[in-house]
Fold these 2 entries.
Entry 1:
Amino acid sequence: MSRKFSVAVAGATGAVGNQMIACLEERDFPVGNIRLLASDRSRGRTLKFKGKDHPVEVMDENSFKGVEIALFSAGGGTSQRFAPIAAAAGAVVVDNSSAWRMDPDVPLVVPEVNPHAVAGYTKKGIIANPNCSTIQMVVALCPIHKKAGIKRIVVSTYQAVSGTGQKAIVELTEQMKAWAAGAPMEHKVYPHRIAFNCLPHIDVFGANGYTKEEMKMVNETRKILEDHDIAVTATTVRVPVFYSHSEAVNIETREKITPAEVKKLLASAPGVKVVDDPQNAVYPLAIDAAGQDLTYVGRIREDESIDNGINMWVVADNIRKGAATNAVQIAEILAEKYL
Ligand code: 25A
Ligand code: L14
């Protein structure tokens, strides 16, 4: 890559936006000029990029003049409104919200799985970053799907509070402090206490009894793996963990594949690290994945209740691989191949 790009980060002061700025810096993305955008609440703030202070600008219709790549993580409503404005100004938008993911004219991309789909950005000037829980699951499952054909996925998630943003990190911290002090624990962000609890409720419930988060895992998995015959069912659960989502993933394959074969496949799969020595209490942990970019897979074993079944435990940092890193990886493909 020789030339540099004019980049904007929309939602720069949020949990994901901050990490996007860090990823651009760490991965040495060829940034010529950077614009950091947020809402009026962040007016007057500055953020550091490559050791230099940059003012946070309030995002409006004129924010995207001259911008070539715009990374968005400012919530669904904001993306709905501003992504087309940015695209009309000539930027390619990589959007982290759920607003555009299922639009047939918007590619939904995980670079380890379907990098070719980036080419579809020309239709709307928007590329969608998938849901965090879906990203780590398809990174782990894609090699198995290619080899043995996945018929059905049954997944239960154990999701960190950082997925809800900075305010939820504060809520869990405050509840734990209050518990230690013997004081009452208050909640505003979640409908119940999250400290020392598990909530089978992420995003809003739909008419079918599933949450939107659960249905994202169903629909996005099929779109990314480009296979609408895969049956997927999910239960998504919020747990009192700060960073990294964990998932118990059960699959049924068309062809027989043994746990040893799965381990061998995943050992050379892009973006995956196998951590699987249960006799020595070695398996993926949220606290180890936090701050990392890989998807960690362990507890790989046969599902003995069916002919072609595998169980595994999949863990990744939801703010990094689940959001910011994946978005910057997409921008890298754009920069290298398309812009
Ligand atoms: O429900 P929605 O609309 O889809 O939004 C969902 C929320 O999920 C987060 C993100 O929260 C978003 O607000 N999010 C989205 N995708 C995520 C993912 N994959 C995700 N979280 C995890 N994983 P957030 O707080 O982390 O980041 C919000 C960022 O978006 C900016 N923003 C919001 N509205 C905007 C906007 N920017 C431009 N135009 C708009 N209209 C937001 O900037 C932030 O950068 P900010 O200035 O509004 O917030 C700065 C700080 O203020 C705190 N804060 C948040 N909400 C409030 C608030 N303070 C006071 N009142 C509030 N209501 C935040 O903690 C933030 O640090
Ligand atoms: O669809 O709250 O990208 O953990 C990401 C964070 C949905 C909710 C998305 C969470 C959001 C999720």
Entry 2:
Amino acid sequence: MDAMRCLFMLWALCCLSLLRAEDGSRLWLRMERNAGEADVRLGHGTGRTPTLDIAVRELADYWRGDGRVVLQVLPEGPDRDGFTLSRRSDGVSVVSASPQGVLYGAYALLRMQQTGTDLHEGQSVTEIPSYDLRMLDHWDNPDGTVERGYAGRSIWRWDELPEQISPRYEAYARANASIGINAVVLNNVNAKPAMLSPDMLRKVSAIADVLRPYGIRTFLSVNFGSPKALGGLPGADPMEPEVQEWWAAKVAEIYRLVPDFGGFLVKANSEGQPGPQDYGRTHADGANMLADALAPHGGVVLWRAFVYAASSPDRACQAYEEFMPLDGKFRDNVIVQVKNGPIDFQPREPFSPLFGAMKSTQVMPEFQITQEYLGQSIHTVFLAPQWKACLDAETYQDGGLTVAEATQRRLGRRSVSAMAGVSNIGDAEDWTGNSLAQANWYAFGRLCWDTGLEASRIADEFLKQTFTADERFVLPVRQLMLRSWDVAVSYMMPLGLHHIFAFGHHYGPEPWCDVPGSRPDWMPAYYHRADTAGLGFDRSARGSKAVMQYHEPLSTLYGDIRTCPEEYLLWFHHVPWGYVMRNGLTLWDNLCYTYTRGAEEARGFADLWRGMRPYVDAERHADMLRRFERQAKDAWWWRDACLLYFRQYARRDIPADLPSPEHRLDDLKRFRLDIDNYTAADMDKLP
Ligand code: BDP
């Protein structure tokens, strides 16, 4: 009996340690090693490179298919990082014009193996990525904190670098390469001048050395005032020769340390950051000065269009107003980086009109992978549908171009196309602080690679690789993921509402927020404009005229309350509470039903996940369940807060067939979240 008990204990311990291995750290790369049987080799005439060595190693370790795999770099193979995979009777070949392309081909083969979509004999596929630069932007600070980061501290251990190289850097590079990401901005757009100090640059160079073999180029965010703040010059006027010389010398110093350095990301004259306007110059003057310094080395400038001044009557109009007059004035190695919507990564925004408007400037979309405005690392919100809505949106430029098409064109000799996402990565064991949030990192890479991929396919691939291919898990959880964005929008900000978050941390609802002395455009009332007449921001031709920044027919479509898509109704219109919407219900009733449906569906997510217990390791299942339960509670918090608050203006009752609020408005108003970034540990502090 005792022996039996011992055996049982041993078995239980083994199981436990196996379960413990499922801490999410392996991301979607949970392939099992083969038994050493894979025959992988470089093709005739293809010499070894560090990148090809990785491709060979990955396949040698994990490929379980029949026959040999031949990797070949051929000048006539697909270029721009593309590849062709072909299956013949004796095996598979991976061909590309570059080692990077071969590496992407190798990861594609492994993905097919993991998702059960292997090539059959005689079949070949060629893939060419949608964008040249497929870029992650880290908002990581030199002190190890991460702006809007919800997965722990920065993965970059600046204090240990360059002497110590954390093994996480290579794991990070590998994960990125496996989904096609080839560019990384290491630091926050709110950049510290010290980032360009010789000391920091040596650290940057050590990271770049780890990323390089994986085909990833390193970029830095720079502070436009660096010549003054770091270089000791009297100013940073881009027209001053000494400023230009300072940048040229700094750029040369960087390229000595990082020969394949990618370039600079710049947030200028935005939210207090210095910029060319401080010296009476334009964004183009500033961007071009940096572009000229980078051009001899092959670098590019990513110049952000995220600008708004407190004095503007409509923040949504500003990027267009500042940048459109400069269309065509940027050097061809400048890309204007535009957030997906005209305001700021809100739960749902129409696409930024700049995508359709700028015809002679290389423009790139910027998405937010980190969920600053979507429940941070607690709520599950799969973002591929949000990004697809932007990329697939028709801008009507020149008769017809989607956002994806408009941004994938290359306009000049040195132009490159690009797409960026603000990373959700930190030093958390599972990288993103929530196992399902890994799906957003994954989806971002996959969409940069192919904007035509469907969100459902991406979710499917992710779940099969990251959890299990068991359909009893994949089908319901994929459905949950595909619903999750719409559900979150419904319980947070439906029908075009936006920016009614709690001040500062942006986690919970605070439509009443009014911080004395603060900028009006940082207050929710600026956006929701609730009064006894109605709700929403009038951006029609009678209002702020933001609709006129879109090409026809959109301008008319959005501008007319009767044709405006209802998901953007309160974005573009101030709508009477009694306005009858397409389903025959008033605006107020629609708000009540939509908030409630969102909250009920969020509760359904928790129930669904509870039922997934047999298919997920205990650790990830329990951790996610806590988050789903918190999300469900938050959804009711959002619903109650917004309905109770808006009811004061609507002066109508919540329809009798809907549940009464669980909270009282006064209690919710008194409740203060005193933390900056939520983690699972804070979950119980919420109402
Ligand atoms: C806002 C964030 C802020 C960022 C800013 C930006 O709240 O932390 O610095 O965007 O993108 O959404 O520059």
